[in-house]
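Dear all,

This email documents one entry for the complex benchmark we are building for the journal club exercise. For each entry we list the sequence lines for every component of the assembly. Then comes the predicted three-dimensional structure of the complex as a token string, followed by one or two observations. Please use this as the template for your own entries, and keep the labels exactly as they appear.
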Amino acid sequence: MTRTTAYTSVPVRYAETDQMGIVHHSVYVIWCELGRTELIKKLGFRYNELEKQGYLSPVTGINLQYKRSAVYDETMTIQTWVKDYSGVRIEYGYLISNENGETCVEGSSEHVCVSKDSFRPLSIKKHLPEWHEMYTREVSH
Amino acid sequence: MTRTTAYTSVPVRYAETDQMGIVHHSVYVIWCELGRTELIKKLGFRYNELEKQGYLSPVTGINLQYKRSAVYDETMTIQTWVKDYSGVRIEYGYLISNENGETCVEGSSEHVCVSKDSFRPLSIKKHLPEWHEMYTREVSH
Amino acid sequence: MTRTTAYTSVPVRYAETDQMGIVHHSVYVIWCELGRTELIKKLGFRYNELEKQGYLSPVTGINLQYKRSAVYDETMTIQTWVKDYSGVRIEYGYLISNENGETCVEGSSEHVCVSKDSFRPLSIKKHLPEWHEMYTREVSH
Amino acid sequence: MTRTTAYTSVPVRYAETDQMGIVHHSVYVIWCELGRTELIKKLGFRYNELEKQGYLSPVTGINLQYKRSAVYDETMTIQTWVKDYSGVRIEYGYLISNENGETCVEGSSEHVCVSKDSFRPLSIKKHLPEWHEMYTREVSH
């Protein structure tokens, strides 16, 4: 068995370029979020449902390595997977490549779950047992 | 007497440029919002206080004319004023110019006030009498 | 015969929301650009090719009416068509609707073509005869 | 002697918030860029001049740790300094804090210099000796 990987296709928007003629480096952070959304759906959940239950999942860290520039009018592929899980903290892995299969950006992000009111990290195992089970399954491969 | 005008100074961010080498046209919409925030402060109010009272002021229309491009590393000035007011709908006027005093963008935006729950336009006169008085005073000049 | 309309599907990104809990009004300006890109492809052209030939097509005006809010986790449809054409100035029309077919935003944008060096509007008929023919055909319906 | 630190003041824009009611995590990447621009000016250089000479300085890595959320209507302070320098690669450090002096985000970014045409990293010592001298001086403290 292998971990689940989501493949998200995203055309480069003109507004995402900068005067270097390439995609601005901040945009990849947003693309990673698109990948995360799709991975969560593929795993049978919806991030929006989490928020409707009174929880949020803010980012606590991001680490991206830029290898090659993306440009306007090409379609990127974002690969996303669950990289690590501690019961409290989730780490997602990302690989963003262009149409020629060349890696543009690699990296990871870390997240916790908090309640809307307190914004304090909580035990996913206790408060969101189904998510806990899913994360545990993914990292046990 | 004349209407109140706010003068907001905003340096062009690198991330706001696109591959044309100029500021992307969507950015001016955000700059108008900065001008609006400052005008409201100058008139003695705070937009954030409005939201804390349970109201929002969404945009219902925007109209911008682009005359000249803004570029990275210059500082723009946004002039903002109350252009029209109906008791329900507020129209703000904008003039965005560069360091040489040349007009880059002119335009206007329209807004209503709604309650957070219903999102339905409400009478500002009735629900926000101090704001009503201020808007009325501004457009009576 | 009828005018060509492009239908562009765009999922709402989390980063596109604001603290009102709805899509920020500046985002629709970017969505209109996505619609324009797709319409141009459907008409047999590519905006990027225009730039490679040394031309740019900056926005000279934008006018949007906001009717209803878009929210995270829904997929929007952007309808785009050529609304008017003068030989120098092109006007595109937009209608952005949600999954229930409700109109969220309607509007238009105006554009000229300029050379990369001068940034001065030029005759499309003279410099870009194939684009001229296409625009003329679209507005003659 | 101590390293030079730039202090950049940036009011939180409404458009920078998301439906969590806090600043979207991608925005800090843009704020770091603002800090970098200011640090470079404080050190007697201008990034724009570099580009006019035919060089670019793309980001090759970014690493941010999010400690606390920033919210609308407060003014953030971005501290930026040169953290490391290898002759080819520059690392900047960042500390972003709110009005109460609380740290919201800490992190770093890595950059190279490339020529506009090739996009290949070059020796700063050889091609940009004044910048080399400045970076060397900063990290020798």
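Observations: Chain B has a mean pLDDT of 96. The two ends of chain B are 6 Å apart (CA to CA).
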